[in-house]
């Protein structure tokens, strides 16, 4: 009662209370509108048609890390959209098998180029450039990536692992993109999809180099996207939570963790649609990832999410180390 009485008699207090209430209401309304915008994007708003980038018109899609998981699914769905496909990955036998499968199933043309991106071999890139120069590239999917073998403190991580992450996740993306850009800018059309990670949105302890490489990808995508927009080349950073793949080591899908097929379908159907992403030239199109992306940026603080990641990766590391110990013990028994 005293508070109500004070509000009734003290106009300054009443005014201040009203202003604070209005500010709070505006804050909540802004967040609600933002969340509704995410839902509109992922469930209603259509993406740019892939015909804009040459689907069904003889154009090619270049896919790195193409032999498994998300890369392999991009190959299938882009072939289904009537792109010819250039597959680039490490294992020639896998590439040849996939190329034959795509030709038989979709009646499109394919090329393959086997290279180990961890080596950063200049001769490999030179030969890849020669192959790219023989085709008309409409789409580039920068999918190849590598991660830490298990969550590991930075000070204890092997140098070869750190070098591999930088070489594959950063250098390879830069180099392959530079190979396709001259013809894309000349033709004034092209689509570059850079497969990102939530680890680049919120720093992930014990995966420090991988997390930093994905943060680099997000920033670089925005910068290059702004540079290339006037030339008709579309750059999108695709922010991704977990997907069921060999790299993620997750075998069963869930609400937050889809199989590659529905995930890739969401990406290709929502070109130019931000979904849950807030950064320019970014997209988080898969519905549960979009909601999670919005929550990361609007619920709790960055420090909270970094500490959450620390706790999560600490637990994963403990389990991974126990598994290594069991495997070492089992191996010792057989010797």
From TrEMBL:
Family membership noted in the UniProt record: Belongs to the short-chain dehydrogenases/reductases (SDR) family.
EC category: oxidoreductase
Any one Gene Ontology cellular component term annotated for this protein: endoplasmic reticulum membrane
Organism: Jimgerdemannia flammicorona
Keyword set, alphabetical order: Endoplasmic reticulum, Fatty acid biosynthesis, Fatty acid metabolism, Lipid biosynthesis, Lipid metabolism, Membrane, NADP, Oxidoreductase, Transmembrane, Transmembrane helix
Name listed for the protein in its UniProt record: Very-long-chain 3-oxoacyl-CoA reductase
Reaction(s) catalysed (UniProt annotation): a very-long-chain (3R)-3-hydroxyacyl-CoA + NADP(+) = a very-long-chain 3-oxoacyl-CoA + NADPH + H(+)
Annotated TM spans: 12-40
